[in-house]
Amino acid sequence: MSTPANGTSTTYLPPVVYPDYESLELDRPAPHVLRVMLSRGKMNSLDFRMHQDLGAIWRLVDADTTVSAVLLGGRGRAFSAGGDFEMVQQIIDDYDFRCQMWKEGRQLVQNILDCGKPIVSAISGPAAGGGLAAALLADVSVAGRTAKLVDGHTTLGVAADDHAVALWPLLCGMAKAKYYLMTSDALTGEEAERIGLVSFCVDDDEVDARALDIAIRLSRGAPSAIRWTKQALNNWLRAAWPSFEASLAFGILGFTGPEAREGLAALKERRPPVFEQRSFI
Known about the structure:
Blueprint: E1 24-30, E2 33-38, H1 48-63, E3 69-74, E4 80-81, H2 85-93, H3 95-114, E5 119-123, E6 126-128, H4 129-137, E7 140-144, E8 148-150, H5 153-156, H6 164-172, H7 174-183, E9 187-188, H8 189-194, E10 200-202, H9 207-219, H10 223-233, H11 235-239, H12 241-254, H13 258-269
Parallel strand pairs: 2-3, 3-5, 4-6, 5-7, 6-8, 7-10
Antiparallel strand pairs: 1-2, 8-9
Helix pairs in contact: 1-3, 2-3, 2-13, 3-4, 3-12, 6-7
């Protein structure tokens, strides 16, 4: 407890201690800027632990009084290639694990929305699945020209979930959102900027520097004003929460059916999926 000059007392929160993450690397590239790097192999594919940590870290960031802005990026050749095959197979096979993934996916989106600190994402290479969700839910997104953004859920044989049904129509409009989410077509960083899906597109070798510059600028701004502006704007996404909940439920339901099994098999065998046509859905 301390007593400022105006005589009021202020209780300071204890310092935040981050866990020793297996697949997230943390450092401080500038004062009051926390850099969170996805780091799991060349493609940063998500296993359950990484998915869980990527969702949970934002509660700690929000409570960390030493952090005023966050930079989110990926090591290696990709931002994140999405969920790995082993995790997807377990979602298909294991009811309890499927329910846990539903819960973790919901918390990832909720915790990013509730984190008061501004988040800047640096998107290089492929970005899909839960990694893409975090990248696009960031307050400012910087993509390389040849970055490859794809919500590949329908190719896998499940409904688009994670974040996209709530977020993409706000960013790029319903017409583009429907096309890209139903076809699972990929977008380059250049096309993503053109339709409004990301904030900025820059040359591939400039992504990290541009994202860091923005994070530093935000870290030096008026903290309360920036955080309250973010929270007010996020109410547009909270208004879409029923749509998000429906998409998440449909996505999890799809993992119980034959289309997800065929989609995963096709990905493993590197062939186009062959889905049975269903007239009763």
